Amino acid sequence: MATTKKHIINRTYIVSILIFILAAAVVFKLVNIQFVKGDYYIGLSEQNNIKNIIIPAKRGSVYSSGGKLLATSIPEYEIRFDALAPSDKNFDENLTDLSNSISGQDNKSTSYWKEKLRKARDSGNKYLLIAKDLGYNDHLLIKNFPLFKLGSYRGGLIIEQKTERNYPLGKIAERTIGYEKKDDQGHITRAGIEGAFGSKYLKGTDGKRLSQKIGKGQWKPIEDFNQIEPQDGLDIYTTIDVKIQDVAHYALLEQLEKFKADHGSVVVMEVSTGEVKAISNLGRTSVGTYYEKLNYAIGESHEPGSTFKLMGMVAALEDKVVDTSDVIDTEAGVLTFYGRKVKDSKRGGYGKISVAKAFEVSSNTAMVKLITDNYKEYPEKFIDRLNSMGLNNTLDLPILGEGIPKITHPSDKKNWDGLDLPWMAFGYGISLTPLQTLTFYNAIANDGVMLKPRFLREVKNFDKTVEVFNKEIINPSICSKETANKVQKMMQNVVEKKHGTAHNIYSPSFSMAGKTGTCQTEYWKESGLYISSFAGYFPAENPKYSCIVVIHKPDTKIGYYGNIVAAPVFKKIAQKIYSETPIEDRLKWIKISELENENDIYRNLIEDRSVMPNVTKLNLSDAIALLENLGLEVEVSGNGNKIDQSVKSGSKINKNQKVILKLI
Amino acid sequence: MIYSAHSVDRKIHNIAQINESVKSIRSEFVDTRAILIKYKMESSVSRIIKMGIGTSTEPPIKIIIIK
Lengths: 664, 67
Known about the structure:
The complex is a heterodimer. Chain A is an alpha+beta fold.
């Protein structure tokens, strides 16, 4: 017994010693980890679990003038499929239905998808692309397809989401709304409004926060301090009017398609503020469809042709070298300078015509004569006049890539020759962008006050206004009001008078004014290429909007004159705006007392409510109203303008009694 | 201490979840609005409606009574 007890005690000692050694080892290791290698492990853990998380700032949205979204950031979805996830039973059961559903979404056949899904399962593809760049509603639809609705574990559905820029208007004004893109090398391409105001307003600043990793891929902030708060981008409200933009886009598109033109642009500007209401640029693809290829209206500087006659005319009138009623001889429609000919589009010329009429019929010879006769001794006077009207300067637009205007100055001896002045008179040898030309026309419509074209109205932070943009005056007076009024009249006649070059767009119900332009382009390459244009404003008497239409290289077999190709687009826009602007009809308030007199007549008629009144002298509707008010039932028969009542006046009446009013 | 750390974790998961749904609701809104804008544009309305109804070429008349 004693031995057994000792035996047990010995064993206990051994076990205790072993446990003690184990504990000592644990303590040793703990001490080792904590104090000897502690710093190393703490560092490692921080590396894995703690980092400075960047909190991305939300990019601001772009709105139209009416508060419609033009561009905003929203998540886009990509749907992938883990072909191994579903069980055999689920996969086989749903394969046909699923293929059917997917093919309904992307126009590929059911058998194509069936084949593809089966192959993916056989080859063990755990990441098969089903669809990408989906909007929220489309992604929801796919999520509810057979098999996919079982979820990610049983159905194998993988949804990936990333924030993308979305343009609700789609292809309309795409180029002007623009974008900001970063390529692999970190170069940023900036186009349109997004590009122009991206870094200043839309972008915002990213925040930083020290965070610790916790489950499910989330990070938890460690400290409240030592972080940069993210600042969301601001929203910008543009001047673009979706309605006008819509009209401009489709009017231009229709005309480009009709004339198979290479490209074209339209800009609509508000005369009194310089706000660009619509800007559309369409270029042709190799298969003959059109899309917003480049911002031609802003970027493309080209020879303007006859639309430049306005600038020449304004300069000449301002310098008082001619007046509208002076007479010019168009000399059979041909002039020769250094062996080269200036011709009128009308064979044989226009005979002797007034300066105003020369503009209205767009006579090349007359305009050339007018400018050369008066300026040939000192061409710099003409050029200086043009320059003082700001024509040699860019508009300094926020949108990048504005075309640079070119007007050769006589002091530039290398580039100036004897042909420059006469050719300039009808718009050759110089170059302007459509928007620069429009800015000038807008200034004329605005009685000489030149305004800078604007794209922005306001910058807002949610509903708080941060910055408001007002109109910017480039030149308070490019010409006297008198001169402006003179050329306004001429431009009105271009449309209104039978001899005007754009009389084909004349409408008796609303007025327009403007100037056509048909000019050859790339004549150094091949002949028969034209630019058709029309610049003007409407209504003619009280200009509200100015507009330019430029169409490059229409098919000459179908037509190429500015009045045929470009002017109809202008008319369509003008017509639309006209028909949407209500005409106000002001009426005088009729005093109650006048009505009361009439009331008295009724009152006298029904002095006694139990007696039938005489209604034969009233008109029918009054008679019915009166009798029904007395509680009678009225029936009308016959045709005519006199009333014969079935119940005699003065006789007693009862409620709901029937009275027949016969018209005779 | 441990309890509050866990409750913070919970909150963060909660916030992440709510953010997710905010995002999807927002994208549903934008997506739907984009469709609406497209439908509302006159060019598409006139394409859809073919019942002999056209857009007016004459402006509406507004009657204003001067007192």
